[in-house]
Amino acid sequence: MKNFKFINALRMAVLGAALFLSACATRPLIVLDSGHNPVRSSGAISVRGINEVDYNDIFTGELERAFAQAGWQVVMTRKPEEDRSLDERAAIANETAPLVFLSIHHDSTQLENLAEIKTAYQPAYRTKHPIAGSSLHISIDNPHYDDSLRFATLVGEELQAVGRKFNLDHANPSYERPLPLVNADYAIYRHDLLRVLRTTTVPAVLLEVGVIVDIDDEELARNADERQKLISAIVKAADKYRKQTKASWRKK
Ligand SMILES: [Zn+2]
Asked: For the MurNAc-LAA domain, which residue ranges apply (predicted)?
């Protein structure tokens, strides 16, 4: 009797482990990358004098929770207190072979559009005229350019559906090196030289959530309700992308 109970318990444990493993195996995987580093290269400086990396970490942390709640496995390229090189970030994506790699940033603009201001923390800049909105960046050198564009387009569609505007500033023809627009409706740019996009061997997209040298867009980035709207839109886009994706490049 004792033996029977033990075998039954063992069977249940094995069955439980198998179910757990198969649930993990079927959960879609995304790698999230919070742009820049707390120590080395902290990115743009906002109108309020706050480093871009702080906005990236807040947004990416909330995005991680939303993806986990939606049933995704999430791998982060770094924790908020960690520094990671661009090559290390790409290596994490390549080793884990997710459905998609998404890098989160907050934007600035060219110096000619900016006026210098003083803040309590450090000298900063603000736009002379409104430059605001999200933009999406992909690289033709990524081996999954088409899938990267498909994911970026889905994110653009969902962001538009929640009323988000898009930032076409990078394509300004008066700039020395304007970025080519792939999709003007959702501000999807070819940004071929970005290392995390061109050295990743999985579909890869960089999202500039907003322009933190613009007063209104920085306020949007600080607003938890506004962030949640954008985050829900991104998760919805990823769910649509997952349903369309065969992911034949995946190792596991
Ligand atoms: Zn950045």
From this structure: 30-238
Q: Which residues pair with 161 in a beta bridge?
A: none
39-85 pLDDT, tens digit each = 888 999 999 999 999 999 999 999 999 999 999 999 999 999 999 99
Report the separation in Å between the CA atom of 36 and the middle of ligand 1, taken as the mean of its atom positions.
Answer: 6
- CATH label of the domain that carries residue 176: 3.40.630.40
CA–CA separation, 94 and 77 (whole Å): 11
| Residues spanned by the domain of 174 | 28-244
Ligand 1 centroid to 61 CA: how many Å? 16
The mean pLDDT of the chain is: 91
The domain tally of the chain equals 1
Residue 90 bridge partners (DSSP): none
Q: How far is the CA of 124 from the centre of ligand 1 (A)?
A: 15
Tell me the Ramachandran region of residue 217: left when phi exceeds 0, alpha when psi lies from -120 to 50, beta otherwise.
alpha
* Residue 189 in domain: yes
